[in-house]
Amino acid sequence: MRRRNGMLRLALAACLLALAALTGGCAGGDAHRTVVVLGPWTGPEGAAFEAALARLSDRSGHSYVYKGTRSLRETLVAQLEAGAPPDVAILNSIGELTEYAADGKLRPLSQQAAERGYPPWSPTLTLDGRRRTYWVPLRVNLKSLVWSRRGTPAKAPDWCVGMAAEATSGWPGTDWIEDILLHQAGPDTYTRWATGRLDWKKDPAVRRAFTTWAEILGPRSPESVERSLTMSFEGTPAPEHPSGARRGLLGGSLPGCTHEHQGSFIRYLYPGAVGDALRVEPAARFLHGQAAYKGAYEVSGDMAAVLTDNPAAQELVTLLTSESGRASWSRAAPEQLRPFFPDASDPQPDDPTGQAVASYLTREADTLCFDASDVMPPVLRDAFYRAVLTYFQDPRTGTLDRLLGQLETVRSQIAGTPSGRSGQPRTPDDICAPPGG
DSSP assignment, residue 106? Predict the structure, then answer.
């Protein structure tokens, strides 16, 4: 009987070895043919991305499962704590990505996957004595833009402001401050501020950016302030369709306003109106900046990072950033949702407004600087969001003194390292670069 059992065990072992040879091993078999992607896109944006993944799946033979959420940071933190991270996460915060890399949560990208890691979206990190790329941009956006109603005078804009964005309320205001500081003080000062090397309270450039914002917006009634603080940056649905799509601030959500400082992604709220009823132009014309910096533009991006050892995850990042992968995504998206990509050779939106924005992004800009609050460690970024909301409500000098003091305290406690842990890498310094790297 013992001999018979031993023969059975030998036969079973041989079968398992044969199966492993066919499938690439137990850990690399069917499980490694499925790639789970966590990202920020829901609704039509999420559907377009899923359609692009389906096309890539046909090409690669792998199965791609996309999970979109508006609570991206909270979802990812919970999954990491549970020991069940997605294979690929798509994030817009360099500060968060730096923390995850320092904690050993990210895998360095393969050389092939890292080839399309253009600056300023993909600064390298030095960890364990090696300088490597940990994320690459999938799509990008231009933030230094102003949208306006055609026929309205540019000299006295009535600014549309919507500050609400659920857990990240306040970021539309930080975009104003960042853009103003970039155009008043230039990319070098902007970089030192964004990467934690500038004193919020003592440096005049920071204070001037806040006060300039208040001057540009002009006097606002308590009712107007409250409306902006509670208004989503996407606006509201039309009253006759309360469960319908949001119509944007210029689409009637804030009657009477004429100009909106907002990134290129906002075009999805104005299908058919842009180029007809609305126009878009560089924000530098409105920010009281210096002529020397009119060619500087603030940008943001959605970057892909790999969190597991699944080799198909690295392959997916390579596919998504390839010219054919970007073309598949562009074809799968409706016109107003076609993404912008970081290189002029990539497919760009082909509507007139999309072409204009793509030209600023890839050709006309002298310097592209990554969104400063998205560069900052999350604890400082979140404090910045809250400070902007408070200052918008009460722009007096004493309020600003107190807020800048609080922000400087947070910055100094972090001491330029993610989460304040000594010995960990600083936030990358190379966050400003010419178009195309």
Answer: S
Contact, 247 vs 162, CB < 8 A?
no
Amino acid at 280: V
User: Which sign does the torsion angle of CA 222, 223, 226, 228 carry?
Assistant: negative
Taking only the tens place, the pLDDT of each residue in 158-203 is: 999 999 999 899 999 999 999 999 999 999 999 999 999 999 999 9
DSSP string across 346-405: S----SHHHHHHHHIIIII-SEEEE-HHHHS-HHHHHHHHHHHHHHHH---HHHHHHHHH
The C-alpha R_g of the chain, in whole angstroms, comes to 24
Read off the pLDDT of residues 214-243 as tens digits, 9 standing for 90 and up.
999 999 999 999 999 999 999 999 999 999
Whole-angstrom distance, CA of residue 259 vs CA of residue 151: 11
Strand segments, DSSP code E, in 86-218 are 88-91, 125-127, 130-132, 136-142, 145-149, 159-160
**Helix, strand or coil for residue 282?**
strand
Encoded tokens for 279: 């126009």
Partner residues linked to 36 by β-bridges: 65
